[in-house]
């Protein structure tokens, strides 16, 4: 009988089973011996008190907990009080065990309206319980210093394409913070009050000038690491645009475009023959194709020593000079981008961390937005992201 409640501190005295619900009557195992206000011993009884709360959820039958206790009066401070009930917070109509079950079921994907009908409570009650538990999870992680390795990237929120900035803890693989906006003006207030930002050693960003200025100002001791995915994507973007200018039929033939985008070692014999036919028709493409994959293999190197990084930087400078000598605007733009980001790219060869973790969390954030059918209140969105993306 004592284990029916699932909460320590109660003694079950009876159980009643009705048509669609169960009722557990219980009393406290120990009544208060001192006043909680003045600690005076021997408080006096002021009368019986019955507390009825929703206790456990069920698909068919529900359980209510009826706690028989007494209101007490202190003879010293002349104040009355109720004893603290384990697992039941003041002014709440349900136990913490029931609220935890509702939160978990809503977290597992059951919508608020369905859960409210099943548990015979209001939909607003479900949302309130979920919000309170989410705040509790976030509060456990509050007042923490900035992580040593930080990933910064942007994503959109809602149909109006409101931009938000994600600060990801790359060392512990979790979202550190989410803030509205992406400019330094919008983020300066948060960054100014961020504790421990001088301890940040590595910051991984995409090829964004605004984020680089932000990192240099607010994280003075951090080394900027270029995200490998964005560096390779910039290379592929400019090369694809140039191929479409030289051979317009590529735009209408997705198979040829897929061949040019695929690594040479992964092509089949049929694809190699089609690629050679394209090169015979447009001889200018072949040297550009080889140059693209030389730079690609250079950018994809990881965990290099300091000596190897210096050698790679010299090789990348040579490729940049060759791209600048070409008469194509796409290649000159690519050369300018690589030259501006040569130092973060060299740091990228040294470290293995990148923003792949951040991009993965962005995918999870999109799922959170779809489950909620969008968010109008940014704080509600932030709480859900910090509670689930860890």
UniProtKB/TrEMBL annotation:
Domain Transposase IS204/IS1001/IS1096/IS1165 DDE: 150-385
Pfam families assigned to the protein according to its UniProt record, in alphabetical order: DDE_Tnp_ISL3
Domain of life according to the entry: Bacteria
Coiled-coil blocks: none
InterPro entries: Transpos_ISL3, Transposase_DDE
Record protein name field: ISL3 family transposase
The species this protein was found in: Puniceicoccus vermicola
Upper classification of the organism: Bacteria, Pseudomonadati, Verrucomicrobiota, Opitutia, Puniceicoccales
């Amino acid at each position: 009988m004592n284990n029916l409640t699932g909460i320590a501190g109660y003694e079950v005295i009876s159980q009643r089973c009705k048509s669609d619900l169960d009722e557990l009557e219980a009393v406290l195992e120990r009544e208060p011996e001192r006043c909680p206000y003045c600690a005076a011993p021997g408080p006096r009884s002021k009368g019986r008190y019955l507390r009825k709360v929703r206790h456990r959820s069920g698909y068919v039958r529900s359980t209510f907990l009826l706690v028989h206790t007494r209101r007490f009066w202190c003879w010293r401070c002349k104040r009355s009080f109720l004893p603290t009930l384990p697992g039941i917070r003041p002014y709440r109509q349900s136990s913490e065990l029931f609220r935890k079950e509702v939160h978990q079921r809503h977290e597992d994907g059951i919508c608020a309206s369905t859960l409210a009908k099943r548990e015979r409570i209001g939909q607003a009650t479900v949302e309130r319980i979920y919000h309170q538990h989410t705040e509790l999870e976030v509060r456990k992680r509050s007042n923490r210093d900035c992580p040593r390795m930080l990933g910064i990237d942007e994503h959109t929120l809602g149909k109006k394409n409101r931009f938000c900035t994600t600060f990801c803890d790359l060392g512990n693989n979790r979202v550190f913070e989410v803030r509205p906006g992406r400019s330094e003006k919008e983020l300066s207030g948060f960054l100014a009050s961020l504790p421990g930002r001088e301890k940040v050693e590595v910051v991984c960003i995409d090829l964004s000038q605004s984020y680089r200025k932000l990192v240099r100002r607010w994280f003075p001791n951090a080394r900027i690491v270029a995200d490998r995915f964005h560096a390779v994507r910039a290379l592929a973007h400019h090369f694809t645009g140039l191929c479409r200018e030289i051979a317009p039929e590529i735009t209408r033939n997705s198979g040829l475009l897929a061949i040019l985008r695929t690594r040479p070692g992964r092509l089949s014999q049929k694809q190699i023959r089609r690629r050679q036919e394209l090169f015979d028709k447009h001889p200018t493409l072949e040297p550009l194709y080889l140059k693209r994959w030389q730079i690609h293999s250079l950018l994809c190197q990881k965990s290099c020593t300091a000596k190897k990084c210096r050698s790679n930087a010299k090789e990348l400078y040579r490729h940049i000079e060759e791209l600048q000598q070409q008469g194509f605007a796409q290649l000159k733009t690519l050369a300018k981008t690589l030259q501006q980001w040569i130092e973060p790219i060299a740091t990228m060869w040294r470290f293995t961390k990148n923003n792949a973790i951040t991009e993965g969390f962005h995918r999870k954030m999109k799922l959170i937005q779809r489950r909620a059918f969008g968010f109008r209140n940014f704080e509600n969105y932030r709480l859900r992201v910090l509670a689930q993306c860890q």
